[in-house]
Specification:
The protein is mainly alpha-helical. It has three helices and two strands; from the N terminus they run βααβα. The radius of gyration is 12 Å and the shape is globular.
Length: 65
C-alpha cells in the first residue's frame, strides 16, 4: 500500500535529483505548508501536495492478477 507521505528517497527518484536537492525541495514544500497553517514533519511531505507542486502525475498502480 502506498503511503500518503513522501520521503527524501522517493523525491530523489521521482525528480531525478541529488539527495541534497531532494531535502531542499521537501524543506521548501514544508515551509509553504507551515505558512498555510499546517503541521509539518521534517524530511516528509504529503504525497498529494508534492505531486501537485512539482507537476508530477500520480504513480500508476500495478494490478496483480
Amino acid at each position: 500500500m502506498e503511503s500518503d507521505i513522501v520521503r527524501v528517497q522517493e523525491v530523489r527518484q521521482r525528480m531525478e535529483c541529488s539527495e541534497r536537492k531532494a531535502y531542499e525541495v521537501i524543506k521548501q514544500l514544508n515551509t509553504e505548508l507551515k505558512a498555510k497553517g499546517f503541521i509539518t514533519i521534517s524530511g516528509r511531505v504529503p504525497r498529494a501536495y508534492f505531486e501537485k507542486r512539482c507537476g508530477l502525475q500520480k504513480k500508476e498502480r500495478l494490478e496483480t492478477c
